[in-house]
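Private note to self, pasted from the team thread so I don't lose it. Backbone tokens:
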């Protein structure tokens, strides 16, 4: 897999060292931080493509760090692995994904399993620098679907598909983030360019229209119950 610039943010020195060694052996460039403050200060330089982030830390919590990372242009598309010291309940897991985490794991981590999950995420999110979603592509493809971004046209199995401007933007956004869970709130912010408190049924209805306009292929837009959507291969 393509090497990434990885940040490890955890007050536990033993855990930082363990994960750093695992990532280094896999060929990644690793930067460990003992506190959220030091990590956030580092973002003034080159931003990471992967953040392994403890949720339970003194001072600024990992939950708030996720929110900050998703609000910054430099880290908006970085992969975030949320790490919990304890077995989480379902509400905590859902909340982490709603904030923008890509994966949720519990300590202790098995190195082999951790790397397998990471590699799966990287395969789904290829990009420049680390694993950011490519913004400069001119054509997006997924199976028989082809999107010409400059021309704002869509073709399915060679046949032109007519979409509204908003449907086109939503479809392009989902393809750029293929394999990642996108919350309804995030979609509202990124595609509708509005505050996330707008009625999320707006997103649901647009997805329903896309599925109908893209017969066969549209079923790849998977509903993640209580969270949002994910485009599958």
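Design output:
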């Amino acid at each position: 897999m393509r090497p990434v610039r990885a940040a490890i943010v955890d007050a536990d020195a033993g855990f930082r060292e363990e994960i750093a060694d695992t990532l280094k052996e896999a060929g990644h460039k690793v930067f460990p931080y003992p506190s959220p403050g030091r990590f956030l200060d580092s973002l003034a330089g080159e931003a990471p493509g992967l953040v392994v982030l403890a949720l339970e830390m003194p001072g600024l919590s990992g939950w708030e760090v996720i929110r900050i990372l998703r609000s910054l242009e430099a880290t908006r598309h970085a992969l975030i692995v949320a790490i919990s010291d304890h077995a989480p309940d379902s509400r905590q897991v859902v909340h982490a994904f709603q904030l923008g985490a890509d994966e949720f794991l519990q300590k202790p981590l098995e190195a082999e399993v951790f790397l397998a999950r990471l590699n799966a995420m990287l395969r789904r999110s290829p990009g420049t620098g680390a694993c950011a979603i490519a913004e400069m592509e001119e054509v997006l493809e997924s199976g028989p679907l082809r999107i010409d971004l400059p021309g704002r046209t869509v073709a399915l199995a060679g046949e032109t598909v007519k979409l509204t401007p908003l449907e086109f933007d939503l479809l392009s956004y989902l393809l750029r983030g293929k394999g990642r869970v996108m919350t309804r709130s995030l979609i509202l912010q990124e595609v509708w360019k509005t505050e996330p408190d707008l009625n999320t049924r707006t997103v649901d209805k647009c997805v329903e229209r896309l599925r109908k306009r893209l017969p066969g292929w549209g079923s790849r837009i998977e509903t993640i119950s209580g969270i949002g959507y994910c485009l599958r291969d």
